[in-house]
Amino acid sequence: MYIAVKGGAAAIAAAERLLAEARRGDPALRAIEVAQIREQLGLLVDRVMAEAALHDPELAALALKQARGDAIEAVFLLRAFRTTLPRFGHAEPLDTARMRLRRRVSSVFKDLPGGQLLGASFDYTQRLLDFALAGAEAAEGELLATPLAPPPAGTPVAGPAATGACNDAQVDADTAPPALARLVAEQLIEPCLPSPGDPEPPDITRDPPAYPMNRAARLQMLARADEGWVLGLGYSSQRGYAFTHPFAGELRAGAVTVEFQPDELGFAIELGEVDVTECQMLTQFVGSAATPPQFTRGYGLVFGAGERKAMAMALADRVLRADEFGDELTSPAQQQEFALAHSDNVEASGFVQHLKLPHYVTFESELKLLRELRGAAQGAAA
After folding, report:
1. Could you point out which of 122, 238, 293, 304 has its C-alpha 20 to 30 Å from the C-alpha of 61?
2. pLDDT tens-digit profile of 271-309?
3. What secondary structure does DSSP assign to 256-272, as a single string?
4. What is the C-alpha to C-alpha distance for residues 248 and 245, in angstroms, rounded to an integer?
5. Measured between alpha carbons, how far is 163 from 189 in angstroms, rounded to an integer?
6. Could you tell me the CA-to-CA distances from 241 to 196, 330, 331 in Å, in that order?
7. What contacts 324, CB < 8 A, 6 or more positions away?
8. Cβ-based neighbour number of residue 58 at 10 Å
9. 52 in Cβ contact with 61 (< 8 Å)
10. How many other C-beta atoms are found inside a 10 Å radius of the C-beta of residue 346?
11. pLDDT tens, 193-220?
12. Dist CA 8 CA 18 (whole Å)
């Protein structure tokens, strides 16, 4: 039971002033600007956009500043703003095969058609604190100004990565075709087909979830889900809590064109581009009476540079397809209601943090009941 609390307006106003002071920090230091957050904390900005389901780097950076760097609070702010926006239609499905690539790797091909494009990645760096970054910007400027060394003589040039393409380089899709296409043609990997009847995908932001969910709804929930939760689900599946042996078939990051078809035109027009990260995980499948042995897929797609989330999402997507392949349900990650209903960090944060609010009546009633039970027990013992 909850009760309304009156009064305390002055205390609440004072708390807001204290929050503003804490957000500002030491006034002797220069205040951080939204543009700095957007440009220099890009991975955090991308995560907030993905979990808020709103692609706007400027607003995501503003939300992070307002939230003092609390990613979940920033997601909450951005989602609240999203609800105020008019909705005038649906974009055409993104064609990620036409992605202008900034990064593209695969762990299953030694010679990837079109070559590997390493891009900007922590994968090949030592996890050592760089104290030069704490003092001045000169060290970073010196690194950026250092010319890239050419590959050793005799090195085969298989793609942009071998030529030392810089971080801002982008590669057209024609140069780097989808890595899995050849194996799909050989029927060694399941094809990408629409669901039976090709139903209109549900909108989880408007329609309340109803379990069991179809795959389109599950993917929407995973795309907005807390990265840590999805990472935990994916990790659990790798540790034996599901029947998976995953391979990273292809991981792609880059810009994809967004198209929209106005009713009055009857054809699609380009609105702009969004940055996305896409991952396809491959998992062995021994086959069934109707399906030959092949690799099956898990799919992940998120806004911005979010490859850890996209990979974990692809792992979770595959284990949630257990019913399609007759997998035995043995782990929490395979159970839709557990995996998806607890994935939203805004809802989870609200449920946990609401415990800070007044529960006087509830606690008092339980305290009274506890005293009565103890009294009755003492009376019986006497």
Report:
1. 122
2. 999 999 999 999 988 777 777 889 999 999 999 999 999
3. EEEEE--TTT-S-EEEE
4. 10
5. 31
6. 29, 7, 5
7. none
8. 12
9. no
10. 19
11. 887 777 888 999 888 888 999 999 999 9
12. 15
